[in-house]
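Predict the 3D structure for this chain.
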Amino acid sequence: MILRKLSAALIILLAFTGCTKKTHNKNSEIQSSQEKNNHNAGEELQFKDFLDSYSPQKKEYNFFLTYKLAHSWWDAVALGIEDAVNQYEEKGVFITYDYVAPDAMSAYDQTERIKQAAATHSYDVIGVDVADIDIVTPVINQIIDDGQKVMTFSSSDSSKEDGCKRIAYVGNTHNYRDGKDLAEVLCEKLEFKGKVAMLIGNVGAPCHEDRASGAREVFAKYPDIELVEEQYDEDIVEKAYDFTKDFIEKYPDLNGIICCNMSNSVGAGQAVEEARLSGKGEQIIIVGMDHDQRALAYLRDGIIYALALQDCYAIGFDTITTAVKIADGILPGSLYPEKTEEKTEIYYQNEASDLLSALYGIID
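Done. Predicted structure below.
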């Protein structure tokens, strides 16, 4: 099972830690075939990641990690980062790191951050959650050409196929497939007919764009499914809420909404919940992404039909273990892959209460 049970301290950290930060560490009903084969809702969720047998070559490391924007999704990644750092410290290896992002996504802001980090020559590895492949890749390549070590991590890669010289990637390697899987769940629930809308996220963000492309491929193969509108909500709840309200007004017979990031799952859920209170939107089925507490509550209450949750903790943990090896000059191969693939799993209403309990300590 990809999610892990959080201790009380970690639950508090997930709920209240700000995303833009600089950290230094020393010391309902079940109808579809997918649902019939899903997880054991009573199975305990627990942490299970431990350091591998690799012995670091140094006693101290310093990493720079920049992600797309200040957002609670990356707080979950931070839990894995911090856990790995603490486990290394227990072995006498001390890791400091900067973990920073802007309040709103900007590929230009990101390139400035990584250029400034590189200019200090104080980091063993620079890690980038790529905001836009076309804009960020040339900067990564220049930094590498200047002799520094760069990896990508989290939800968005810029790969060798994109012309990027980054050493390795840790994170979701299957966003396109995730989009297809969510779209298939939605289409099956709709019995492969109806009007659907899509909330994407940020223009140019590889993970958002890939999920949307995967979803489009699925919708296109069913002649009775009509994709009536797409909108980029910039990974902002309020914008997703406003776009969903517009969908409901423009398409009174709208049957489904697919959400390609964590924020738009929340915004869509809020708008549909409000619409149902006024007698609208009862037929709208929502599928979306990830572990926001509000989205999980909408899943529990039947507002959202399914959520695909990425293993954020493992992304953070494996980013640190990979960065240590990169810092030691070890290239991808037998000790770690060029792409570390983390899991995504789809959850349904009957599992929502267990997720809320394990992740946020909420007991119904």
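Residues 1-47 have pLDDT under 50 and may be disordered.
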